[in-house]
Amino acid sequence: MQLKLTEMERIFKKLKMRVKEKPHHKNAYFYYEGKQILKTRISHGKGDIPMPVIEQIINQFYLKKDQFAALKKCPLSYEDYVTILKEKSLIG
Fold first, then answer.
1. Which phi and psi (to 5°) does residue 65 adopt?
2. Which of 2, 4, 48, 49 is deepest in the core (most CB within 10 A)?
3. Structure confidence at residue 92 (pLDDT)
4. Which residues of the chain have pLDDT under 50?
């Protein structure tokens, strides 16, 4: 799976994540009903995100590879993501 920084930033926006700019990276936080559910970060670098980092991000999002691919390509919405987290009992 390929993942560009711009695609990751679109995911941040789609999931209404809070992004904090740091000198060398961006931290992104997903909150649900005021509670932080996950934190991830990406580098300010250029080009594709390396595969080991993509695998970490997928795990941090509590998704399977195919679910993350759907999130990237847009069929998976914010509401769908919340449903997945509820099914996994990560949120109420």
1. -60, -40
2. 49
3. 84
4. none
Q: In angstroms, how far apart are the furthest CA atoms of the chain?
A: 37
pTM of the model: 0.90
58-77 per-position pLDDT tens digit: 999 999 999 999 999 989 99
- CATH class, range 5-87: alpha beta
Q: In 27-61, which positions are buried (b, 16+ CB within 10 angstroms) versus exposed (e)?
A: ebebebeeeebbebbbeeeeeebeeebbeebbeeb
All structural domains of the chain with their residue ranges:
5-87
**Residue 16 corresponds to which tokens in the numbers above?**
């209404």
Q: Would you state the structure tokens that stand for residue 19, as one six-digit string?
A: 């992004």
Give, in order, the Cα–Cα distances in Å from 76 to each of 13, 22, 26, 84: 13, 28, 23, 10
